[in-house]
Amino acid sequence: MSINTPAMLPRLCIVSSGTDPDGSGMQIRRQLRLLRPSLPCLLQIREKHLDAAVLFRLSLAVKEEAASRNALILLNERADIAMAAALDGVHLRESSCPAGKVRSFIGRMLTGKSVHSLESAVKAAESGVDYLIFGPVFDTPSKRQYGAPQGSDALGAICRTVSVPVFAIGGITPENAPLCLAEGAYGVAALSLFTDTVTLPELLETFEKLLAS
Fold it and tell me: Most buried of 45, 78, 171, 173, CB within 10 angstroms?
């Protein structure tokens, strides 16, 4: 599947926990089962600790689970496995090779990239990505390795500079998501916020309302 226009791109991105112990994908599959049919979603598989064979099997399992869901499945970094499993796209780290190089062999698959500065955002946008994920906007344990929160002003500067959709990540909550959208963010992305499947249905309903406004 290829996505070529922002109008076709979901505005909510769920990032997997990165802690799947055996590649079974049970957490990701539970999340998919709770998705609302009326809320399109990107789901990024980010299980970097798994070897290639296990990651391929996981990708196939998640793809099968997502077949009847309103979700696009992307794999972190491994464009080769994303292609082999016929996923919807690949998501690159800021330190990855330019998206244009990746696109030269993945064709029209969806391509996104994480960025942590205005300079990186501009370079990534020029390289041909379909979207960017910028952060951390607010404080969150999973993003502290990238430094202090950059704040909504930095998010706004990037949104006003690049022409591709920008997702805000890092400490995103229903309370601060509207601030990100007001700064020009196309959508929001989160990891730990969506890991509790007990609270996930209510959260998804809340974000559907926020993103529709």
Answer: 45
